[in-house]
């Protein structure tokens, strides 16, 4: 699937898509830029990264910004396009933000490049719908303060890959759009990308660069921890803790979000036709891209967490507690003894209590954590809620307001 050869220059626009390893690929391209030049490929207007784990917008952010500037002229755009070559005939411009370009902007980019004698090609990685949504969910948890259950968030989420491909297809010949399936397991994303330039067998990428994870998704424990922090402390605190967890353990094995059968059906109904169009247009009608994961993954059941034991904390728990102590401006060594151990003891003592007047979703641990005066008073949290907390409208669960029915 090599890029077609013409006498002029060739600009390859890597347009994402989002959540397909774009940052990792961009870091490899920047780290290996000198080696790329030996093969006649330029990667200019770089971000100046220092480590392979950094998160950037890629070297295409300037072009994306100019395309979105209503005051920019075609001459401005033309000069920037030519700056990507730096003496070579072929150049790479990468930014997953191109995924959001409207049809008019794509048309302008094609027209200005053509006027310069620059042939335009696009590389786009497409991801299976449910996999994309799960990764996107983790991203909004990490960066945008999300704390709602996956089903609530996904009900309004879009599969942006299908939308982006339709916009490109309207302005760019289909044989100039190289669509790669992210889930394809025969080669890494770096090898697949270089294959477009016939470099996959001759271009040796440093293993440390090729195998590095950037902006990875979350483990189940990290996901629940961050959702709790977002619900109580807000977006800014969640971002700080997210960075700590990711950078402290960048190669952790991510765990997918659990999705029930009812939600699977809703996703299939919403995006089935879009996936069929992508497969028909870019994969000769083969069932390459899918809506749902393999059946064995769909049928799995989510196992509950083991009861939390202060003496058996995992890495993410320990990092979270250290971060919380430092972030909240205290250096007292007895914070865990007075708070975390007290929470744990109270939760185990009262966790099995039931009462016909309690809301079905009442969470003892959440009630104590979100009402520390109850925690430190030592009173029975169930009785406190029934006698005082309910009338006062106190929160009793993570991540959402109390239900209306529970207030009655």
Largest sheet: 5 strands, parallel
In one word, what is the shape? elongated
Strand order of the largest sheet: 2-3-1-4-5
Listing every helix as H and every strand as E from the N terminus to the C terminus, the arrangement reads: EHHEHHEHEHHHEHHHHHHHHHHHH
Strand content: 5-15%
- Mean pLDDT metric: 81
Distance between the termini: 64 Å
Number of E-state strands: 5
Q: Helix fraction?
A: 40-55%
CATH class of the domain at 9-127 and 157-217: Alpha Beta
SSE map:
Layout: E1 9-14, H1 22-31, H2 33-38, E2 41-42, H3 61-67, H4 74-83, E3 90-94, H5 103-115, E4 118-126, H6 129-144, H7 150-154, H8 160-171, E5 177-181, H9 189-195, H10 207-210, H11 220-233, H12 235-248, H13 261-282, H14 295-298, H15 315-327, H16 335-350, H17 364-370, H18 372-377, H19 381-392, H20 404-407
Parallel strand pairs: 1-3, 1-4, 2-3, 4-5
Helix pairs in contact: 3-4, 4-5, 5-8, 6-12, 11-12, 12-15, 16-17
